[in-house]
Amino acid sequence: MTGPWAASVFALADSDINFNISALGHSFWQLTIDGLAYGAIYALVAVGYTLVYGVLRLINFAHSEVFMLGMFGQYAALMILGFSPSGNAYAEGAVMTIVFLGIAMIVGMAVSGGVAVGLERVAYRPLRKRNAPSLVFLITAIGASFVLQEFVHFILPKLTGGKLGGVNAQQPIRLVESKQQFTIFGGSVTNITLIIVISALILAFAADVFINRTKFGRGIRAVAQDPTTATLMGVSREKVIMLTFLIGGVLAGAAALLYTLRIPNGIIYSGGFILGIKAFCAAVLGGIGNLRGALLGGLLLGVLENYGQIVFGSGWRDVVSFVVLILVLMVRPTGILGETLGRARA
Amino acid sequence: MSTSTSATSAAAAKSPGPVGVGDRLRLWWNQLSRPAQWGVGLPIILLIAAMPVIRPPLLTTPDTDFGAVMAQFGMYALLAIGLNVVVGSAGLLDLGYVGFYAVGAYTVGLLTSPDSPWNKTGADGFLSDKWAWLAVLPVAVAVTAISGLILGSPTLRLRGDYLAIVTLGFGEIVRLLADNLENTTGGGQGLSGIAYPRVGVTEANPFGIFSIGNTAEPFNSGLWWFWLSIVLIIVVLMFVGNLERSRVGRAWVAIREDEDAAEIMGVPTFKFKLWAFVIGASIGGLSGALYAGQVQFVVPTNFNVINSVLFLCAVVLGGQGNKLGVILGAFIIVYLPNRFLGIGDYKYLIFGLALMIMMVFRPQGLIPVRQKLLAYGRKIWQAAGRRSREEQS
């Protein structure tokens, strides 16, 4: 009885899951660098989850769709600027490329920020007025997520004459040709990796300063810590909530551009879903409600996932990140850096 | 006299606002004795069961086979009842419920499909062709229950909203496992030739009435699977209903309403949450086994996480916590896209909007649950109903 079963279990382990530790050692630095680039994107999206959770105790399930619409926003901006899908990258020169990318990024940020704030207005505010329980919020968020996805899936192509949206991914518009710039311990660093990591660092730093050093940021932290007292101290809760959604949306829009640089044919209506779950994992990993935790969690998840993909095989990439999430939550339910946005002054 | 007023005022406090048709029906139903409830319920069930045979002109689905639609409804109703135990009764948001559905379906697939290395049918296996599906059914339920235990025991200690994401991850992991373990599950090719109950073999139906090849109108395979699922639904409803009236059900309600308070009152919350999770999972597995038998084929894309949201939609639309409500929800979810094929594409858009609108205007669902005094609920309701009727006369 045990014979054939054991044999088939071994056969399963043998052929379907690799345990290729040597590959990990072989290309450790390359994997770390690529993982950091992914992780930077996760981190930016995770900030949106973490801030909203910190202020409202709500998992904004539709945040992945905010990100997805940001991708379409920057793609539309590039189309309006006169670019069209092509196999090869445009050669515009460094300065103009950065200008065009900047414009696309700003449009993406505007679209995502607008969608996030609009979502708050349309979906969450009526529930807040009714003092709905958190399950109701979450179900609304799921509903909103579906509506936004299906909007891009079926309605956007009708509005734009089939240029945007639909079942298939958008044909990629490449502005930057991937080119190696220098190496770190044998791991090559491309210009795309550089753009992603540098932009993400700047944005993360800006968000951190905004939350921790400005008057608005103090308002957000105050509401996160104690909404009632914050209101008594003259902080407008509604404004803070709107601002929180705006910041999260704007960062997701920026992440959307960086993501499309890394994965040019990832612009599809369902393209935000898995990334959103991963970003949420990242936020929980670092300690949800904690801005720096989200950044750390994002980077960590990106790197770990990249290692896991090499060790176990590429099909196991998503499994690795979910398992990491479950393991971390079992050992440390509040995440690596702890949970409070209000006290995460550091 | 004083007792009667307190009983009626308690009943009035339970149902605020004007007493509508629904409340009247509910009151009438609750004051019926158990045999009388069966006496009324059985003809209704029989009528529903006969629907695919009668095929009423407006109700039937013109473009798809009504029997097959009703069979799908039966499976979704089972799923909704199972998910309702988790979400409606215990208040745990499970977004990976499709994972249990997949585990149930794949257990049947792995044990009975010729494509699988663990196939136990055929010459050298110990499952006969005729009864393989029925023999594997309890195995599928048990395996799913164990998978619920494995997922639940680490994650149910987490807070509610973390649970939603972790279960979502679980649902995705199950699908990825089915996709990636190519040598066992067939990967994207899936497993075909899954066993089904081979009964009613005749000249016209060489593979029996449950075979997909049985296309006789109106007694086709879909109809037989629908009837089978009705039997299973009744069994499951009796099981779940008895649980809800027991100590377990009271613990679930206490946990749903306020977990901390329940813990302080001495309810072992973790244990009962795990119970809800495992029972919900096994009902999902049962439905999955039905599905695998009906279509005789499982493939990972049928178990996308998006389906979990559809199941959740059924529960929320119908009314969380109300078993009759969630069955109605399942019917809506299955029936509408099949009746009006034009909305097929917009299915998720419409259901997403429906979820959002429901949450604002009627978060309790179409047929909301009324929390009875659970311990002696029936007796008190009967007493209150009798008194009020006596007062009226």
Summary tags:
heterodimer, A: 346 residues, mainly alpha, ABC transporter involved in vitamin B12 uptake, BtuC, two-stranded antiparallel sheet, 2 strands, B: 393 residues, 67% helix, disordered N terminus
Detailed description of the structure:
The complex is a heterodimer of chains A (346) and B (393). The longest helix of chain A has 36 residues, at 94-129. In chain A, α3 (28-56) packs parallel to α7 (191-213) and α4 packs antiparallel against α5 (94-129). Chain A has 346 residues and is mainly alpha-helical. Chain A has a single domain, classed as Orthogonal Bundle (ABC transporter involved in vitamin B12 uptake, BtuC), CATH 1.10.3470. A two-stranded antiparallel sheet of chain A has the order 1-2. In chain A, 71% of the residues lie in helices and 3% in strands. Chain B has 393 residues and is mostly helical. Chain B has a domain at 64-305. Helices cover 67% and strands 1% of the residues of chain B. Chain B has 16 helices and two strands. Chain B has helices spanning 2-14, 21-31, 34-54, 66-89, 97-112, 132-155, 160-180, 182-185, 221-245, 247-257, 259-264, 269-295, 305-318, 323-339, 347-361, 377-392, and strands at residues 191-192, 297-298. Chain B has a two-stranded antiparallel sheet. In chain B, α3 packs antiparallel against α9 (221-245). The longest helix of chain B is centred in the last third of the chain and has 27 residues, at 269-295. Chain B is globular. Chains A and B meet through α1, α5, α6, α11 and α13 of A and α7, α8, α13 and α15 of B.
Care to give the gist of this entry?
The complex is a heterodimer of chains A (346) and B (393). Chain A has 346 residues and is mostly helical. Chain A is built from 13 helices and two strands, in the order ααααααββααααααα.
